[in-house]
Amino acid sequence: MAGKKTLYSLFLPYLLIIPFACHANDLLNDTVRNVDEDTAKTASLKFHRIVITGNCPFGVIMASDLAYQHVVGVGPWAFLHSNMKILRDMKPDIDRITTDFINKDYVVNMESLLSLQPDIIYYYGKGQNDNLERARVPTINLDAGGNTRSDPVQTQDYWENKFSQTLGLPHSHKFAEAWKAALAEAQPYVEKIKEQHIRALYLEQSDGRQLRVSGAETYGDTYLKMAGMENVAGNLAVKGDAGRYINVSMEQIIQWDPDIIFVVFGSAEDILNNKNPGQDWHNVKAFKNKMIFTTPTGLHNWGGLSAETPLLPLYMINKFRPDYISDAKMKALTRLHYKKVFNYAIPDALLDDEFRQH
Questions:
Q1: Fold for domain 175-354?
Q2: How far apart are CA 222 and CA 201, in angstroms?
């Protein structure tokens, strides 16, 4: 789109006023910006039985206790790709929310959906609509359209705004602020990494059956750029939205020879141990240097578009150069993120589990 601003130009005025040294210990002393308690108590939702057919928006609505209390159904991947120990610790009543209204083929079962007695339904894009108007309640598309499907900042801000507008919630900017803080923290290191021309692979899926990568104009492509890295799959020809996530061969990855690999839905350990049938990683630079990492899983997998994804560029920098962002600092920034966005103090054991490689 002509005149489209880059993510970095959008935040340039903010970045220019941030002190160069932005340390986690200083940030931990900041006041947690929660919605004013009196406002939250007096606010009442316009709708009281909320269904979200998708997965990723659930992390955004969880940032509002008032809205979360009225969610009765979510898409199954919201739990399948989450660390349920963390979810249950933060939201002890999480098991009351069902995913049973969506079949195994990811088609909505209208009878099961109606049994939830929803009074509003949120979905993401035409692919998730599935004739939801049959439920005869308001249906809200959370797809902002345009280029937002490769822009996680605008997408999560749009979701937060849309939930506020449609439910009558007090307005907040938790996710926009989280992205600004994370990009400001990353910025000094991003320029250094850019100078090194680090070739990275964003491996969406590696389950032993297929190798699926993020091409151009995807969230994965954007995350790599936010960390100052170059997407080795960025020049692949793509068609349509689904085509941006591309099945490739082992031979193609060997030809790319990435310096570092981030595995989203799959196991970095299985790759490093060469356990996946039909795959031989010995000739890949990232394998030789043990630079293959699984994205963390908290409320959802960070590698998708989760409530923790603003931290993902920082995690990428941490894995590439722990002298830039240490493990201790990464954990401190994550702990702060949970506190600011969810007013949640994550226990040390669960934080360690979140960062455990598998």
A1: Rossmann fold (3.40.50)
A2: 12
